[in-house]
Design a protein that fits this description.
- The structure is a single chain.
- With 729 residues, this protein is α/β, with parallel strands linked by helices.
- It has five domains: 201 residues, Rossmann fold (3-Layer(aba) Sandwich), CATH 3.40.50.300; 190 residues, P-loop containing nucleotide triphosphate hydrolases (Rossmann fold); 105 residues, Arc Repressor Mutant, subunit A (Orthogonal Bundle), CATH 1.10.10.10; 73 residues, DNA polymerase, domain 1 (Orthogonal Bundle), CATH 1.10.150; 102 residues, Orthogonal Bundle (Arc Repressor Mutant, subunit A).
- Helix content is 48%, strand content 11%.
- The chain is built from 34 helices and 17 strands.
- The strands form four sheets. The chain has a seven-stranded parallel β-sheet with strand order 3-4-2-5-6-1-7, sandwiched between helices. A six-stranded parallel β-sheet has the order 8-13-12-9-11-10, sandwiched between helices. Strands 14-17 form a two-stranded antiparallel sheet.
- It is elongated, with a radius of gyration of 29 Å.
Length: 729
Amino acid sequence: MDVKNLNLSKILQKNFGFDTYKGEQEEIITNVLNGKDSFVLMPTGGGKSLTYQLPSLIVEGTAIVISPLIALMKNQVDAMRGYNKDDAIAHFMNSSLNKTQLKQVREDVKNGRTKLLYVAPESLTKEENTEFLKSVKISFYAIDEAHCISEWGHDFRPEYRKIRPIIDEIGRAPIIALTATATPKVQHDILKNLDILDATVFKASFFRSNLYYEVRPKVKPEKQIIKFIKQNKGKSGIIYCLSRKKVEELAEVLQVNDIKALAYHAGMDSKTRSLHQDMFLMEEVDVIVATIAFGMGIDKPDVRFVIHYDIPKSLEGYYQETGRAGRDGGEGKCITFYSYKDIQKLEKFMQGKPVAEQEIGKQLLLETIAYAETSVCRPKILLNYFGEKLKDDCGNCDNCLNPKKKFEGKEYLLQFLEAVNELNEQYKSDHIANILAGNATSAIKSFKHDESELFGSGDEKDVKFWESIARQELINYFLEKDIDQYGILKLTDKGREFLKKPYPIEITEAHRYEDEDDGDDIQLKQGNGSGAGDETLFKMLKGLRKDLSKKMEVPPYVIFQDPSLEDMATRYPVTLEELTSIQGVGRGKADKYGKEFVKLIAEYVKEFNIDRPQDLIVKSVVKKSGAKVYIIQNIDRKVNLADIASSKGFSMIELITEIEAIINSGTKLNIDYYIDLTIDEENLDEIYDYFSESETDSIQDALNELGEDNFTEEEIRLVRIKFMSEMAN
């Protein structure tokens, strides 16, 4: 493909409503369009999905996106459809579809209407799906959450290791592998397993300045959490716990304290899980208390806090989970509760597992302890773990905002480096710390290190002190860990230079969490926030979005994300044309969702006599839509709804939504002629009776009650229109 002649900025604006690309997005897209393999390492919220969504619209054929969770696929498909008038543009193929739905997906793919097809790795291995995909023109493969391939990754999934052989069977096309978290070892594992070692590698910075990191002593954590949430009233947040039991207990405690919270874990039935997730996305509850089963499928941009009730098993998992805060670039607070007792529990869980798995688990846990107990800038520790160096302190974490006491550390650093050197760079940090502190563990006795001159040479300090020195060595790049040998310490060139010519260096006193006795007086820190120009209008727009999201049964962010609403509340667009210049709003989105928003803004501008930045005068209130008049006239003439939809360029669902809006505004319509042709009398009666007796007009509730295998959403919505028209109007 001749990429040079493509105006990628124009394509971005037209389809997604953004004026500029983030970071390396444009370079990645160009690489994909040139038919080359790509490996993308980009933090959560960095815009990974755009790097395969946009090329899929340009390249001939259908892009296959391999994704691990049904919820994640649904969110991505909803978002993609939100940018495009044709719902067939994106589909998913997984176990949640019935035969009729699967048939429709395959037809749309075959007819070339579908540019993005999301597939679970388990679905990909099914012979019938493999055979079908062999007959499809595939533009490229996108492997999302690619860290699932690696046993060193925090979400290892064995099915992911079968992806490459299946791709070879279906037919080779360029591959783009994407992940938000991967250490150098995991990166190599992914590239090797997918056989794309020569792929172009794109690494974005893992530093996100809007996230505030804090570790608190785990003293009366429930009390601290309730206090924190009440001080952040109305904001969305996720609380992670390691056990299902704790999830349910904490959710109950929050509910009793008048906090809108729900539980979520893998032990719940799928309907309840989906309902709780949807209620969180639709902003019907503020807080989800969950195990790590919740999150990978969550694409909610305005999560304002992520709390870890228990310390996580790995820094990789921790970074991924905290990364769900502030994805829109706004405020994101990441609070973690830490107690060494939790570490001992996690170590106990590892007993009985295979030795290699125990070794991996123990090493990952040591990294987490180092992070929790450090007094160094927290993002510096996190970035160091992922192989990135942050030059300056972040200035937005607990350690930066409340710095610990510093002391001259040259002699201690030197003593530790000399020990690493004398032991021929063959041991991990905890082993050397125990030697220096004179702590004769079984490992030290087995190597007879308790008989060496080094043993006890630093016994004026304890093991925890020497472990904190090891962390300082790593942060200062005097030492590095050999990732292939479970974290054995190796001297760097900088470390060898320091051994030859030591110089004064200040280091920070480590925090002793076990000494803390109460968490009541801890100050709450603020992350970097973003705000709308006109707060009153912003709140009104959020209210309208919530109403529309309920009416259209899509999460609020699918309609417009917070930054878009903030831009509207700053620039006051009063026409659909002006709306397309708003951040994140393309023509498709403006046409699909914009009408109600510009109407509200126009009325607000008029009522409060606002001087808009555009200096445009509001001439009149937005008139009744011509499309609505056309629909009403044609229904009166008993024209087939499929023909009405086609003539206006609507999908059937879009037409039904328009009809629902007409009905909801109080106009009576008779669509019996169409219902009689398309819905069995028995089914019609059953749905109608349901709405006659139900306390809610929710389509999802109706599907749950009536059974998704028996009725389609379209049927239920059509009968609901009949019911509302006859009973409400």
